[in-house]
């Protein structure tokens, strides 16, 4: 039944349907986006592979820098940010 499932004329029909559905103006844009995505995926996969094996056989103590400690006085809540500053004059 599916002995000759994908023949050249099937590909031609699929190409014609894609051109009719998406239009000839959108296809280069879509191909460019797909190529850019593939390059990003390839570079990220390569970076992950390089992260697994340290360069030169030496290990580092910490791969990521530690962030500075945040004290409770540094944190501003949304209600504090929206409240106006208190007036300096006396109220009668």
TrEMBL record:
It comes from the Bacteria. Keywords: Cell membrane, Membrane, Protein transport, Translocation, Transmembrane, Transmembrane helix, Transport. It is a single-pass membrane protein. InterPro entries: TatA/B/E, TatA/E. Residues 53-92 have a biased composition (Low complexity). One of its GO terms (biological process) is protein transport by the Tat complex. The keyword Transmembrane applies. Residues 45-92 are annotated as: Disordered. It is found in: Cell membrane. The chain crosses the membrane at residues 6-24. Its main location: membrane. One of its GO terms (cellular component) is TAT protein transport complex. One of its GO terms (molecular function) is protein transmembrane transporter activity. The keyword Secreted does not apply. Belongs to the TatA/E family. PANTHER family: SEC-INDEPENDENT PROTEIN TRANSLOCASE PROTEIN TATA. Part of the twin-arginine translocation (Tat) system that transports large folded proteins containing a characteristic twin-arginine motif in their signal peptide across membranes. TatA could form the protein-conducting channel of the Tat system. The Tat system comprises two distinct complexes: a TatABC complex, containing multiple copies of TatA, TatB and TatC subunits, and a separate TatA complex, containing only TatA subunits. Substrates initially bind to the TatABC complex, which probably triggers association of the separate TatA complex to form the active translocon. This is Sec-independent protein translocase protein TatA. It comes from Actinacidiphila guanduensis.
């Amino acid at each position: 039944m599916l002995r000759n499932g994908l023949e050249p004329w099937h590909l031609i029909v699929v190409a014609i349907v894609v051109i009719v559905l998406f239009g000839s103006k959108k296809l280069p844009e879509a191909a460019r986006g797909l190529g850019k995505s593939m390059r990003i995926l390839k570079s990220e996969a390569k970076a992950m592979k390089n992260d697994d094996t340290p360069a030169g056989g030496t290990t580092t103590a910490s791969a990521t820098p530690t962030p500075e400690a945040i004290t409770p006085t540094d944190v501003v809540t949304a209600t504090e940010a929206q409240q106006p500053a208190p007036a300096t004059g006396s109220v009668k």
